[in-house]
Amino acid sequence: MADEQSIGDYIIHRLLEKGVGHVFGVPGDYVLGFFKKMSESPIRVINTNDEQGAGFAVDAYARVKGLGVACVTYGVGGLKVVNTTAQAYAEKSPVLIISGAPGMQERQQHPMLHHKVHTYEDQIKIFERLTVASAALTDPERAFGEVDRVLSAVLAYKRPGYLELPRDMVNVVPSNCELHTPAEPVMFWDQGALREALAESLALINRSSRPVIIAGVDVSRYGLQDPVLALATGAGIPIASTILGKSAIDENNPLNMGIYAGAIGDERVRDYVESSDCIILIGVFLTDLELGGYTAHLETRNMMHISGTEVRIGYHSYRCPGFELLKSLERAQLRRHDEARFPRAEKHEPLDWRSLPNEKITAQRVFRIINSFLDENMVLIADVGDSLLGCTEVEIPGPNRFISPAYYASLGFAVPASIGVKTAFPDLRPLVIVGDGSFQMTGMEVSSAARYNMNPIIVVLNNHGYGTERPMLDGPFNDVAVWNYSLIPGIIGTGRGFVIRTEEEFGKALIDAGNYEGLSLLEVLLDPHDISRELQRLTASLGKNVK
Amino acid sequence: MADEQSIGDYIIHRLLEKGVGHVFGVPGDYVLGFFKKMSESPIRVINTNDEQGAGFAVDAYARVKGLGVACVTYGVGGLKVVNTTAQAYAEKSPVLIISGAPGMQERQQHPMLHHKVHTYEDQIKIFERLTVASAALTDPERAFGEVDRVLSAVLAYKRPGYLELPRDMVNVVPSNCELHTPAEPVMFWDQGALREALAESLALINRSSRPVIIAGVDVSRYGLQDPVLALATGAGIPIASTILGKSAIDENNPLNMGIYAGAIGDERVRDYVESSDCIILIGVFLTDLELGGYTAHLETRNMMHISGTEVRIGYHSYRCPGFELLKSLERAQLRRHDEARFPRAEKHEPLDWRSLPNEKITAQRVFRIINSFLDENMVLIADVGDSLLGCTEVEIPGPNRFISPAYYASLGFAVPASIGVKTAFPDLRPLVIVGDGSFQMTGMEVSSAARYNMNPIIVVLNNHGYGTERPMLDGPFNDVAVWNYSLIPGIIGTGRGFVIRTEEEFGKALIDAGNYEGLSLLEVLLDPHDISRELQRLTASLGKNVK
Predict the structure, then answer these.
(1) Predicted-complex ipTM score
(2) Among the partner residues A35, A125, A288, nearest to B114 by beta-carbon distance
(3) Which residues of B touch A444 (CB under 8 A)?
(4) What is the pTM of this model?
(5) Residue-range domains of chain A with CATH
């Protein structure tokens, strides 16, 4: 399998084997040779304007495909994706960063090569903090094994990994390459812990009078939709989702209650969840936003928390593979709780978005209109801030069709993310909701979308500043620069732009954008203090820590 | 001095005392309170679109002002300036990063606050690798002292420092604040080393038949123009500059030879320097680019290397304050070498840029025209790649009027840097030379320049890709997206745009831009393989490590 392969060849071979058809990045001289090698392989290189754009794009691609790769040069490239890799770490996105590096030979001869910070170790030491595994491929004899180790860890933990590839190693053929067999990691668990946890969980669920499931981010990362639905339908348990877990379970499922996120979500769902005597959290992060800025009130004694490496019940925990337990539960003797009547989050009334009144548009109405416009051929991508909060109540017509960085919350994610999503799913259309502040960070990556003939519909909510911050503490620092977003298609030579002041204009622009094959950019003009219902609910709680 | 001051007040007080009138940044909820405090103080906050822009802007500001401060939020802000801080470290730019952080109180209560990567230590641990001093201000009683320590180290070493300010510490008044006296660092040196090094240096210079000085980056960072000129004029020694040291010494000085950078520079200067029997390097980094991609041939036995902490003569070295030695040299008995006839780098012939022929424009001609257009009221800012290489032979009419990241070489520096330079020197006009690839990374920061009524003239060299990489190894990955740069003033609602195909058009656009009060954007269309003379010289040498 690995006969006569160079280190560069081996990396490409392993990526293809894992289904990675695309690599995002920006070239530089320390990584040019590997770019050349990729461009001569079945892998397609997707260039972005800036490495930051590649970092966000690959994060989105990894979330929906199960593995994503970004390739950058040393220093000036690698250190530009520190923030995006941090987000991938925090939100469990299986991203592999491959960074070029100065050759081992030239390092010996010359101490001060360009793009170096201080020592040749700085970059990998930084990435050690942001990844579950990292390796500098400086020793040919160990290189293949190191590639395997890093790749396996990324796939097992759904968190980033880092490979550093000195430029004079790309074409080196290790002497032991023919003997190499890719190793898959084996995890050891005490089966006793799993058995005991299963017995207690089962008893607890059967004994409970009103259980609920809260589906979190790992349901989508680990593809747990089937066992979660089997448990829910088998025992008649309704399912709420966290914001990060939104749409992991098809929102049209009859057992779906909607979002649970403390004060952000629907009050009846919140009351039902918080008064349950058996709250089954599956792959949930208990972050501040997921808990509605700590407005959530979950009693530890009523909680069963199932994660990949642990099952926590009340105040005690079992170290065991929780997702194995989940799969066992579906085969177990479950009592049906079908007597339970559960509430569903209030849905936006469907409306005819093709025929809207000539009235000034508001943030709330944007989300209601989007709610009706969205169809099963689209993926909704929300940037941070009100874009995200307003989208929490948009009903997603299909599983895994919603993406947003709801924990680490790095502004500027959405536009480059649409490139990652479109690359992964060429048949789906990205619908991006992004604030003006975020758009100014990375929005010009629309030109990368244009370069690859992509067709996102990008809705820029222009409220002239950082709208999430204004209710906390305002000042001129919350204003952003003036841009005429609708003229951007002129800059990039393709696409259509719209300026929207009324609902009628929004509806017409959506008709045009929907019928148009290229990309569209819809600038929606909002008042600086016009915010969504969800943000209004959250504001008081978030503001109290800001003085 | 520090009576009843809170930690936030004390930081502002110390910054003002050090002459910092502006802070660059983007707010976020973990740093909003400190932004508010700054906005109520004499400090002026300069917002950029993205934190990366703030990072480059503050680097440029720090290079020309002696201290620059950027303020960002936790995680999503701080980790976006990792790359720009790395550049400030590598190229000695005295930048202080102040990052907001979750409050100490809320950390206790809640483990998963937004913008967190993994642990609350990750960010400061990353910055420890990029700074000479860092502190998390978590303990009120130690906070003032920590601020002093970090600030002193930045000023002493001309390298970045990092302060992390939890949001619930901004308004805390330490109990010991009235007793606090800012401490200034004291460096201890053995005076014997300095005396011996001085005696040997003096003897060597006096004994040498053809000494030369090479002025490096520290001449501008430590303000060593006077002692360097005193030594040069006192002993009749000609001065060459490295690229990072370009224009630290006024290029009109009669002793100025021009750039020495191996194959990049003029051949006669190179021969003269390399055959000298006493090469006095002052504050020079021996980087690959400074050495013309290692085409430079300097004999260690003929070198005297003076830096802030060391004097190296031939193969031995003294640990002593080299710049003190430099100041002693000007008072010493120096033999005049005025018999020495030295070459000067061939200068571009002056030309009448107001009246140019109707001929297709080339990269070489752009730099020649710029050479005549530039006046003493402008600062030339070159981005990385051919923008930088072509500028090395542009004559700078005034000291410290040239800025470029010639070692760490992070693309995207120049446009945001112009914001930093203009903020520092409101009476000077930035002239930016930037490639299309770099512009697509950070060029939209022109909108931040517009927001503050700045008037840069930005020349985009559009050769449709990464022109420095094409001669090394080409492929579609070296192409960049299509942009119509001249239409950007329409997006930002101000400024003028030009498309330039001929010399005549370039000249006319420069006349217009020079007469116009706002910002101008000149897109110069070049052939993809049209490169400067300097890059041609360098290409063969840089390409040999790329396979």
Answers:
(1) 0.95
(2) A288
(3) 440, 444
(4) 0.96
(5) 7-179 (3.40.50.970), 191-331 (3.40.50.1220), 363-543 (3.40.50.970)
